[in-house]
Amino acid sequence: MKHKALPIALAAAFLAGCTLAPTYERPEAPVATSFPTGPAYKTPAAANQNGATDSNVVAAELGWREFFTDPRLQKLIEIALQNNRDLRVSMLNVEAARAQYQIQRSALLPSVGAAGQASVQRSPADLSSSGRAGISRSYQVGVGFTSYELDLFGRIQSLKDQALETYLASEDTAKAAHMTLVSEVATAYLTWLADQELLKLTQDTLKSQQSSYDLTKRSYEVGTASGLDLRQAQTPVDTARANFAQYTRQVAQDENALALLIGQPLPADLPPGRPLDGQGLLADLPAGLPSDLLLRRPDVTAAEHTLKGANANIGAARAAFFPSISLTASAGTASASLSNLFKGGQGAWSFAPTITLPIFAGGQNIANLDLAKVQKRIEIANYEKSIQTAFREVSDGLAARGTLDDQIAAQESLVKASDESYKLSDMRYRRGVDSYLNALVAQRSLYASQQTLIATRLARWTNLVTLYKALGGGWEEHSVPANAGGASEPTASAASSS
């Protein structure tokens, strides 16, 4: 019994085949084990508001509803995840890659089918052995398979593994597209808020400068102001008018950009939003993050799946050097007359194995193997570059985060000082103590500092959005009960997809 079982086991192992792909080993990350430190990188408190220790895990798992706390922004992101066409295409690409994988996987099993055949042939007398013209008929019905390749050296298995890695890479690519869309909607919304504030600032400045111009014009008409004073007063008015037209255009274009991202016109019933300089627009992010967790980013994992696919392709290229065995077989009934086709004794079968042994291909197989190895080295470089890019994005975000708050504080102080300077200069001008030029310079400084303050606040918020995405955030959606406070743990989690 043992001697009979041994050949069966060996045959089963032989037919199961093997893979000639090299054992995959993940390349070492070509970055430091921790993020940079220095004056630009400030470390906040060691625990977040939920009492959890700061770590990259917390940032990556922070749901976008918890990070983007503005109700209006949450609604826009929700609509975008349902309607955005680019995200829809990414999800369809995943389905296409899944179908391609299933097609490749099906090659591991024979395709069985049923077929019927009828043949009628007339032979002339001079070609017949009997010397008389005759008609021959044959009928056949059978079940079988055609050209089924025994995967003895893992060629089909390697191609299946490559298709699987391509499918997994497409899933991660779609996940990255999801996170990018969340980030793009947030950035576009913040830009919209900033341009609205710049428009309002310019409108207020225009009113103030128009009032000063009207006063100077009346003084000029009565002879107490010179033509130079009048033209100097006109300059900031025209500048504010030009800026007003510019920001009006930018606000309209911001709305168009948001409409494209969410896949529909902006709804009229959006919830009330929060101002750019308000609190609670975005949640803060934890710091002190280990760099090895960058491997959780979908663009990095997609690059690794592509690398694994290139590794599997080497196995398929190696298998081309070995013999290939294909089987064609069928079993059924055959008869010279249709009436006897299904009677006893009419059984028929055929078995036709084919073996192909590569002898000379002009160096094609060697070139294919060399190409597969080069492609793997290319994908190793792409994988390492994706890690370096991720590391740089997080490091830049942490550096900006550590300095932008100080910059905002300094800019707010500058705005306050410029405002006091302008008020004093304008008062001196109106009392005739000083020329209008000093008031004009002070007003320009105030207006410029106010614009810079809005731009710096926008930079701080957009940097947080970018840092959140760089840390792998934006994929999960956590919902918090309405009666829960900000310190409550999330009670439900779902991955959104279109």
TrEMBL record:
What's the superkingdom here?
Answer: Bacteria
Keywords, alphabetical? Lipoprotein, Membrane, Palmitate, Signal, Transmembrane, Transmembrane beta strand
Signal peptide bounds:
1-21
**Topology in membrane:** Lipid-anchor
Among Pfam families, the record links this protein to: OEP (PF02321)
Compartments annotated for it: namely: Cell membrane
Keyword Cell membrane recorded: no
Task: Tell me where it mainly resides.
Answer: membrane
- Which family does the entry's similarity section mention? Belongs to the outer membrane factor (OMF) (TC 1.B.17) family.
The name of this protein is Multidrug transporter
According to its UniProt entry, this protein's organism is Pandoraea vervacti
